[in-house]
Design the sequence.
C-alpha cells in the first residue's frame, strides 16, 4: 500500500469525522452569544476567540511537560504568572504555577499546605473552609488524605463569620480557605479578618488560601459601588499564602488554564513532584499531569496580551453594567428574590418568602422554564446545615457578552416566572419515589443504598432516566431528589447518572 493512498483514505475518513463532530456540536447549547449563564465565559469579542484558536494552532504539538526542551513553555509560563501576580498585588516573593484549571490549582494549594505542615495522608491534617467553598476542596481532601472541616454559614446571608472559621482552626489544621467570591452565591468571605486572626493566634505555617478561581481576573477591575470599598482579599494581605485564579473564566481563555500563586519558594515547590528514582528521564512535575498541552496556556497568554489592562477593564465594566441591569430586573419579578451577594458577576435567585404561596416562583421550575425559552441558568439544590437550610436557588454567571442580551434575558425571565408562579415545588422523578419513601420510613438506610452493587444502582438510574416520559420534567425533578436524599446517597446517584449518560 502506498503512503499516498493511505493519506487519501486518512483525509477522507478525517473529513467524515469532522462533519460528525460538527453535527455533535450542533446538539450543544451555544458557547457564545450569552444564552448560557454558567459554564461558559464569553468576552463577546469573536476576534478574541480567533486569536485563541490561532495561538493554540501555533502551540500545537509542544509537550508542556518540559520547559528545558521547549523554551516556549517557559516564556508563556513566566508571562502569565508575572501578569497575574501584578494584578493580584503580589511581590517578587510570590511564585506561580500554570495549571489545567481551577480544580487543579485548588488541589495543588491543598497538597502544598499538607507538605508545608509535614503531615502525611490520613493522619488527620485538616482543611477548614465555609460550606460554600467550591467542591474542589472536598475533592482535594478526598484525594490527598486530608479531613475537610466545613464551617456553616448564615442561612439568610450565605456568609461565613471569620470568628467561626478561626474557631474551627486547631492543631490539625493545614489550610484555611476563603472564596473571592464563592461560586454558589457570589459572597466574598472575610479574608482580611481571617488573616488577622490567624496572624495573631496560630502557627505561621498554616496556609490561608484565597480561592479566586472565579473572581481573580474580574474583581480587581470591578467598579466599586459608591460609598463602598471592596473588601480586601488579595496578596496585599501578607498572611494570605496562596491564591487560585482561573484564566478560563474571566481571562476569556479556552478551557484548561488557571494559575496558582504561592507565597515563598518553599510553598510554591511543596506541591511539585520530582524523582530521579527510576531508569528514565529525571521527572519534575509542577502539576498533576506528565505530558501536557501548551495550547490552553498559549491561548490564555495571547488573549491576555491582546486585551491588556485596558481591554480587561472594559470587558469587566460591561459585565458590571449587565449585572446591575439584571439585578434590577430580576429583583422586580414577583415571587423571586435575589440572594445576598457582594459586588461581582454572580447572581443567585431563590423564592421570595415574603409573598403568599400562590405568588411564589420556585427557582428550579423557573430555571427549567427559562431553558425552554432559550436561556440556560443553573439550578442549585437547597443545602442542609444545622444553622438552617440554604434555600434552593438558581445561579447566573454574568459575562461581557451579557450586556447585549439583558433585554432578552429579562423578557425570558419574566415570562418564565409567569409560567411557573404559584406552582408546587418540583417533585423527584417518580422512579425514585420508592427509594425515597423507604429511606424516609427507615425501611432502607443510607448504608443499605451504599451497599448496593454498582450494577443495581445503574439499573435504578437508567429506570429513572428512561421512565421519565414527561418532556416538561427537566433538571428540577433530579435536583428535587438530591435535596431529599442523604448526601452520600445523592453523590452515588449523580455519579451513576453521569456514567449512564456516557456509558457505551
Ligand atoms: C470554577 C471554580 C473552581 C473550580 O474550577 P474548575 O476550573 O471548574 O476546575 C473553584 N473555585 C471557584 C470559586 C470556582 O468558581
Sequence:
Amino acid at each position: 500500500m502506498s503512503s499516498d493512498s493511505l493519506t487519501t483514505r486518512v483525509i477522507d475518513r478525517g473529513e467524515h469525522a469532522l462533519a460528525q463532530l460538527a453535527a455533535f456540536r450542533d446538539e450543544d447549547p451555544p458557547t457564545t452569544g450569552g444564552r448560557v449563564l454558567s459554564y461558559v465565559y464569553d468576552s463577546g469579542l469573536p476576534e478574541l476567540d480567533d486569536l485563541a484558536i490561532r495561538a493554540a494552532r501555533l502551540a500545537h504539538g509542544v509537550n508542556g511537560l518540559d520547559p528545558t526542551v521547549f523554551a516556549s513553555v517557559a516564556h508563556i509560563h513566566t508571562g502569565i504568572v508575572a501578569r497575574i501576580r501584578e494584578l493580584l498585588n503580589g511581590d517578587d516573593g510570590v511564585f506561580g504555577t500554570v495549571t489545567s484549571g481551577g480544580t487543579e490549582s485548588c488541589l495543588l494549594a491543598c497538597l502544598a499546605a499538607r507538605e508545608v505542615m509535614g503531615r502525611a495522608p490520613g493522619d488527620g491534617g485538616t482543611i477548614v473552609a465555609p460550606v460554600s467553598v467550591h467542591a474542589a476542596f472536598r475533592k482535594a481532601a478526598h484525594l490527598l488524605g486530608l479531613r475537610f472541616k466545613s464551617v456553616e454559614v448564615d442561612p439568610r446571608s450565605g456568609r461565613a463569620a471569620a470568628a467561626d472559621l478561626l474557631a474551627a482552626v486547631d492543631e490539625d489544621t493545614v489550610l484555611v480557605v476563603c472564596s473571592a467570591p464563592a461560586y454558589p452565591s457570589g459572597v466574598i468571605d472575610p479574608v482580611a479578618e481571617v488573616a488577622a486572626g490567624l496572624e495573631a493566634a496560630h502557627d505561621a505555617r498554616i496556609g490561608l488560601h484565597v480561592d479566586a478561581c472565579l473572581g481573580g481576573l474580574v474583581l480587581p477591575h470591578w467598579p466599586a459601588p459608591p460609598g463602598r470599598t471592596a473588601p480586601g482579599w488579595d496578596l496585599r494581605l501578607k498572611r494570605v499564602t496562596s491564591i487560585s485564579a482561573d484564566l478560563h473564566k474571566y481571562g476569556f481563555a479556552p478551557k484548561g488554564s488557571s494559575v496558582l500563586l504561592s507565597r515563598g519558594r518553599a510553598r510554591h515547590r511543596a506541591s511539585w513532584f520530582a524523582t530521579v528514582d527510576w531508569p528514565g528521564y529525571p521527572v519534575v512535575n509542577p502539576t498533576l499531569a506528565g505530558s501536557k498541552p501548551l495550547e490552553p496556556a498559549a491561548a490564555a497568554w495571547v488573549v491576555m496580551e491582546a486585551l491588556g489592562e485596558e481591554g480587561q477593564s472594559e470587558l469587566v465594566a460591561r459585565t458590571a453594567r449587565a449585572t446591575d441591569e439584571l439585578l434590577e430586573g430580576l429583583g422586580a419579578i414577583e415571587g423571586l428574590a435575589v440572594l445576598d451577594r457582594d459586588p461581582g458577576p454572580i447572581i443567585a435567585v431563590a423564592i421570595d418568602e415574603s409573598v403568599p404561596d400562590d405568588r411564589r416562583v420556585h427557582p428550579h421550575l423557573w430555571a427549567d422554564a427559562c431553558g425552554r425559552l432559550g436561556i440556560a441558568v443553573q439550578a442549585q439544590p437547597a443545602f442542609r446545615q444545622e444553622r438552617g437550610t440554604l434555600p434552593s436557588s438558581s445561579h447566573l454567571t454574568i459575562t461581557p457578552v451579557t450586556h447585549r442580551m439583558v433585554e432578552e434575558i429579562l423578557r425570558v425571565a419574566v415570562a418564565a416566572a409567569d409560567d411557573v408562579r404559584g406552582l408546587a415545588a418540583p417533585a423527584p422523578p417518580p422512579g425514585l419515589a420508592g427509594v425515597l419513601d423507604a429511606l424516609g420510613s427507615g425501611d432502607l438506610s443510607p448504608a443499605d443504598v451504599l451497599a448496593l452493587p454498582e450494577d443495581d444502582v445503574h439499573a435504578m438510574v437508567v429506570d429513572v432516566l428512561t421512565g421519565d416520559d414527561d418532556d416538561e420534567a427537566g433538571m428540577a425533578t433530579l435536583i428535587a431528589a438530591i435535596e431529599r436524599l442523604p448526601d452520600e446517597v445523592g453523590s452515588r446517584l449523580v455519579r451513576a447518572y453521569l456514567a449512564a449518560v456516557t456509558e457505551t
Notes: Residues 430-502 form one domain. The pocket of pyridoxal-5'-phosphate is lined by residues 101-103, 106, 134, 136, 179, 183, 211, 213-214, 246, 258 (CB under 6 Å). The mean pLDDT is 95. The two ends are 34 Å apart (CA to CA).
